[in-house]
Design goal:
Length: 509
């Protein structure tokens, strides 16, 4: 289920926008009468082109006056002129960077002021794209925290003529691919759709998209973590909240087909389902990338984020509905905390590394930049890789099934891990990092046994690592290794030093 897709009270003017059918409009005349018909059609077209250019000029004039108005109110809104669909783009060559992505964020006027807090966490001056709202909003002038840096656009009103069954906003949001494509911005290779509460880790998004040829048709994203959701909607579909990427050639076909699809698939619940159905008509399959996270779970996402799959973290979603990822912090503060290590070593964020302290018989699992779990007993690598189930399914709040295996949280507090959370990160010269983790309460209960209290005596852990090499994710993935270093001295019991490094070729965990 995709909540808060948009405000419920969208208004818009009924607007007729019939696409010209070029295939039937011109034809090779065979009989003399046909020449007359063709001549009439050519004249009609000439008139049309003239009037369209007139409309464009008028729209242009009115939008420039709208921006005069807006600057005095700190409003960032510009009218979208009705245009014919864009011409095929010129080829975009060279390695991909973030400027080749056009973001297409689904928002609603009613909730934008609040939701912009999420977008501003990842929006940079190199990101391109828009948040699409149902109507203009007045933004406060005070922009000291970079809140309103993502430009706002109002969806073309053409969407209002389509039928819908449950969510009217879903129609508008599905159509933002049309809105985005027809702007015809230069050098756009990918259109990346997301919700206003989707957090993108853009360096990793680029890393993942770099694997695919943007000149071909690709539809890339993630599905729901809750099997009940995949059964109800679809497995082979990119869930919108996790964000998904559409290469430019596919976006071109989709923009053309979208209005027909909206007519045919009016009975679907979400915008993402409408897009999936339309992509399927074009014959393009869904490509799953496991770093896109719809986060269709409830409760504490800790177990999931502490055992991320071995792939770059691309997105997070639904954090409004989940327990905060860091204890004693709200969702926004939590994300700000995660941003610190992310900025230092983006490709390593949440990457899991497991090792054992052989002397003390402890099992240790690090989710870099986020948390550390220590178990006072031995757990195999396979067990440590499995997320600890600290959460429930999204819709029915059950213990599963999920699209991955989970380990139940043991009823005995002594079997549960002692948890540590990142509270400091810094560069070590240019090529390495230090991150600190302090013991933090996840309310997993108290264990009085000696083995456990030996662990809880450790209050703080320092983790050192080299930054991930740029080619790390271009190779066959292999988890890195960690080793507990001998701290020595009297602080030995209270502090711990762990080094993350490449595994030796024959090394096992
Ligand atoms: C991305 O690459 C293009 C060339 O394709 C270049 O013009 C642009 O400056 C680059 N942007 C960033 C943010 O590196
Ligand atoms: C973009 O932001 C970076 C810092 O985040 C700054 O160094 C750079 O000058 C900015 N570029 C522009 C064009 O504003
Ligand atoms: C502007 O907003 C920031 C934070 O959002 C706040 O700290 C500051 O007091 C505001 N300034 C004014 C003049 O309202």
């Amino acid at each position: 289920m995709k909540l808060n897709r948009g405000g419920s009270g969208e208004h818009g003017h009924h607007h007729h926008h019939e696409a010209l059918k070029f295939s039937n409009f011109f034809f090779m005349p065979e009989r003399p009468r046909d020449y007359l018909v063709l001549f009439t059609r050519v004249s009609v077209l000439t008139c049309l082109i003239f009037s369209v250019s007139l409309v464009l000029r008028i729209t242009f004039l009115s939008s420039s006056s709208a921006s005069d108005y807006s600057s005095s109110y700190g409003l960032r809104f510009s009218a979208v002129p009705q245009k014919a669909l864009a011409l095929p783009p010129t080829r975009s060559l060279g390695p991909i960077n973030i400027s080749h992505v056009q973001f297409c964020i689904a928002g609603a006027a009613e909730t934008w002021l609040d939701r912009s807090r999420y977008t501003s966490l990842w929006w940079r001056n190199t990101t391109r794209g828009f948040v699409w709202l149902d109507k203009p909003v007045k933004l406060p002038k005070n922009n000291s925290d970079n809140r309103f840096s993502i430009p706002v656009r109002v969806s073309d009103s053409g969407w209002t003529r389509f039928r819908f069954s449950s969510s009217r906003a879903a129609v508008r949001i599905a159509r933002t691919i049309w809105d985005s494509y027809q702007l015809n911005l230069p050098d756009v290779r990918w259109f990346v759709m997301g919700d206003d509460d989707t957090i993108f880790f853009t360096d990793n998004l680029v890393k993942v998209l770099a694997k695919y040829d943007h000149e071909q048709m690709w539809y890339i994203g993630g599905n729901s973590e809750s099997v009940e959701q995949d059964v109800m909607h679809a497995y082979d579909m990119a869930f919108g909240g996790g964000g998904f990427a559409i290469s430019r050639p596919l976006a071109a076909r989709l923009a053309n087909a979208m209005d027909g699809c909206l007519q045919r698939y009016f009975y679907f619940y979400g915008s993402d389902q409408r897009i999936a159905a339309c992509v399927s008509e074009i014959g393009v399959p869904f490509t799953e990338e496991r770093g896109f996270h719809q986060l269709d779970i409830r409760g504490d996402p800790f177990g999931f984020l502490a055992a991320h799959p071995l792939t770059p973290l691309v997105s997070l979603h639904h954090l409004v509905f989940l327990d905060s990822i860091f204890p004693n912090k709200n969702p926004i503060e939590s994300l700000q905390t995660l941003t610190k290590p992310y900025n230092l070593d983006p490709h390593r964020i949440l990457q899991q590394v497991n090792c054992h302290d052989r002397k003390r018989q402890w099992s240790i699992s690090i989710s870099w930049g986020y948390s550390i779990q220590i178990y006072s007993y031995f757990l195999s690598a396979k067990e440590l890789e499995k997320p600890l189930q600290t959460f429930k399914t999204w819709r029915s709040l059950r213990n599963g099934p999920f699209t991955f295996n989970t380990r139940p949280l043991k009823p005995d507090p002594c079997q549960r891990p002692v948890t540590y959370f990142m509270d400091g990160a810094e560069d070590v010269r240019d090529s390495g990092t230090k991150t600190w983790y302090s013991v933090g309460d996840k309310n997993y209960g108290y264990c009085g046994k000696r083995e456990h209290s030996r662990v809880t005596r450790v209050k703080r852990i320092l983790v050192t690592s080299m930054k991930m090499a740029p080619e790390y994710w271009n190779k066959a993935p292999r988890r890195q290794c960690c080793e507990v270093m001998d701290g020595g001295g009297r602080r030995k019991e209270k502090a711990m030093l762990i080094r993350i490094r490449k595994c030796r070729s024959s090394e096992t965990i």
